[in-house]
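The instructor's notes for this session suggest beginning with a concrete chain rather than abstract definitions. Hand out the sequence below and ask the class to guess, before any prediction is shown, which regions might be ordered.
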Amino acid sequence: MLVARRQEQACAVIFADVDGLKLINDQLGHAAGDELIREAVHIFDSAFRHADVVGRVGGDEFAAFTFDNATPRVIVERIEAKIAEFNAGSKRGAYDVAEHRRDQLRYPERGNTPGIPGASG
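After discussion, reveal the predicted structure:
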C-alpha cells in the first residue's frame, strides 16, 4: 500500500473463501475438495489482471492485492461474473457468492493512512 501512496494510485485488498469445504471433504472425499479448491483458484484468479497479486492464504481462503481503479464492489461483480461464466459450462453443479463481510481495505477512498480504513495522517 505504500507504493500506492507514493504513486498516488488507488488500490484494494479483496478476500474470499470457499464455504462448505469441510462438508465436501467429509462427504465426497479430499480429492473432491482439492478439485473445488483448484476451481475456486481459477475463478478468483481470472477476475484479476496479471499485474495483481493473487494468492491462497489458508486452506480455503484467498486474497488479492490490486492497483485496479475499480471499487471493491465492481471487483466483486467481476468475480460474480466469472462464477456465472464457470457455472454455465459446469456439469457438476453451480457455485454462488455469499458476502459475509463488506469490510473493504481501499486506499485512498477511506482515508490516507494505508491499512487503516477511515484513518487520516
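Then share the key points. Residues 57 and 63 are 7 Å apart (CA to CA). The chain has one domain: 2-107.
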